């Protein structure tokens, strides 16, 4: 007699043995702190765990499985030992472990790597969004509205906002987080934003050059001097990266070069908001300075595409911004066909892309930017890791962090196939189940 299975169209519930793992609520709180600290919150269990009965395992290692960039393994298993991946392969060959989790015929992917977000802020810009979607002009301040609210907020309010959105993203499968300053635009407020971010996120970016501060509206040169001088001195100890919004109305190519060069001299690695609203020098400057990432990349010349293809700079595409502003979509197909490394991220911010959902961005990239589901999932995991110059996240291979997401679907393709559906049903971060 054939054993009874799940109803048609429904996968069986996972059967995790979580006796040695913390509760989901506690693990989620623990996961909000920086993994670089030595606090007990980051001490993964020393016991080993086998996750088996995986219908499709995305490893992002082309030497594994089907040989594609996703390194897809069917009928797979993965072993977690401490905070790292110890083994991946065919479930029939899985080694013995202390604990076992039955994935129930679901897909497992690396945790998403969100390499571009703006999460240290206060306030709300609902009225601006509503006016934009209604086709009405709105000139109440834009970024300056958020700057005013952020300056007025307490540290506790900013931290509560940040951790709220990090938890929201974690529940949707994001396990590595980059976030920026950029809504303070004073020495004090930029430094405190970075201090708060550094307590909770993996990668911290100094973005004093988001726009010219309203306090220096009549003297942009003085503001550039502040960003590259006193503000940089206060912010550099709390950040790994330096960023600039190189765009008409923000900072031109010469100003952007001066800002990024000054940051690099202080040990910060460059990245850049480039070519979002118009053609400009941002992409070429990113490649010239070996920036890890040029972000947005909506308006590109052939020379820009060639430069990205021949250099080490990742093109990070942010479809949430185009969706939220009804702007022109970046041409991901053009970039991929030219051999450019592409990442996908949320650009989560209160003005132009208020989403923390990488799965939503994956669906947009497939539907509107010319990417295949495989390409979009790779870009949102391994691509994000490349944009942060990391090789310990964004893949599920021995030695990498045990950051992974269990989908309530038999294939990663469902992330694009079923847009808007909350498919992430389990998340492990640094070897600990947090969702």
Automatic annotation (TrEMBL):
Pathway field: Amino-acid degradation; L-histidine degradation into L-glutamate; N-formimidoyl-L-glutamate from L-histidine: step 3/3
EC number from the UniProt entry: 3.5.2.7
Domain of life where this protein originates: Bacteria
Region (Disordered): 1-45
Domain Amidohydrolase-related, chain residue ranges per copy: 108-423
Keywords annotated in UniProt: Cytoplasm, Histidine metabolism, Hydrolase, Iron, Metal-binding, Zinc
Binding residues annotated for Zn(2+), in chain numbering: 116, 118, 273, 347
Binding site for N-formimidoyl-L-glutamate: 183, 349, 351
GO cellular component, one term: cytoplasm
Comment on bound cofactor: Binds 1 zinc or iron ion per subunit.
Cofactor(s) needed: Zn(2+); Fe(3+)
NCBIfam families according to UniProt: hutI (TIGR01224)
Family to which the UniProt record says this protein belongs: Belongs to the metallo-dependent hydrolases superfamily. HutI family.
Name of the protein in its database record: Imidazolonepropionase
Organism: Streptomyces scabiei
